[in-house]
Amino acid sequence: MITDxxxxxxxxxxxxxxxxxxxxLFTPAALDEDWGQQIxxxxxxxxxxxxxxxxxxxKGLRGESERDTYNIAKRTLAVVTAPPSSFKLSxxxxxxxxxxxxxxxxxxxxxxxxxxxSLSGPPVIRVFANxxxxxxxxxxxxxxxxxxxFEVSCYTDPLGIEHLTGSLAKCIRYFGTRTxxxxxxxxxxxxxxxxxxxxxxxxxxxxxxxxxxxxxxxFEGGTASVASRLNxxxxxxxxxxxxxxxxxxxxxxxxxxPIDDWQMHYSRLFExxxxxxxxxxxxxxxLISHRFTPGSKEVLQTWYPQSKxxxxxxxxxxxxxxxxxxxxxxxxxxxxxxxxxxESEISRRFPNAEILYWx
Length: 359
Ligand code: SF4
Description:
It comes from Nostoc cf. edaphicum LEGE 07299. With 359 residues, the chain is α/β, with parallel strands linked by helices. Helix content is 31%, strand content 21%. Helix 10 links the parallel strand 13 (249-256) and strand 14 (283-289). The longest helix is centred in the C-terminal third of the chain and has 18 residues, at 332-349. The protein binds iron/sulfur cluster (SF4). Iron/sulfur cluster binds next to strand 7.
């Protein structure tokens, strides 16, 4: 609950952006899990159309074209169990030591989506009913004598589905009980009321992904506005005695794109951030320039055939990873100009904030 010491923007909060799926599918295995039953109760209380499947495989989600398949999948929530392979975690530098997943798929429609090409099949939003087992497994990855960090937003926007699952709150509570493990999540949604009173013990860093207005307005369909995300972040960061969540917070500025007048547009974004975070807080920045791979470009072009997002290989530099994969990033001089602008703006405006990485 926000108290008297709030900014004007706190009092002007609109209803949060909530995704409502057209259908919710439950596999038999998901219904056998206590956490699956908890999700069932939530979606029943929202009067959503529920289908109990007779088998554990998801079928019938394809339309006549890739675009139809996209539309069907993005309106569907499937409650399933995470496969055994998800109990073997992968590292996720530079964001965190390890990644784990409470869901795969995202209800938003960003035309540069990071999931394109990383998840196979229709982009249905699958949430995992065996979350307690997924959390239990994390202790095996905690390193002795140091804090181990875990990222939970690599394959989903965990806040975007929180009203349907409660899974992010479950993760935050779990990490609140650990002495040497930290949780990190990031979102473009804003429904944070249910997170403010959780016993997080400072072990969760909540981040919002933000961008300059022309980029956010054009390419980030189905998300909360940047102003709403910043207001949500403010509420997460405000001390609990001021009605906030008292969390460490972060901003992920991504994907950074050198649009016309980019310095002016990103300066305006920094002004908005300044206004929203006008109090002392534990703040980090992560800076990610736009990139694409041949695979992600191909998928994005079927999902968003009319998109004006620039993905011209001729204007980019090629970056190869150690597995032989190819990425297209901005050319050296552009990267240098962007990086130096962001680093100097942040150190000037937010001298106490830490920049975790530029990529
Ligand atoms: Fe993709 Fe993230 Fe946008 Fe969701 S919020 S559509 S995961 S880029």
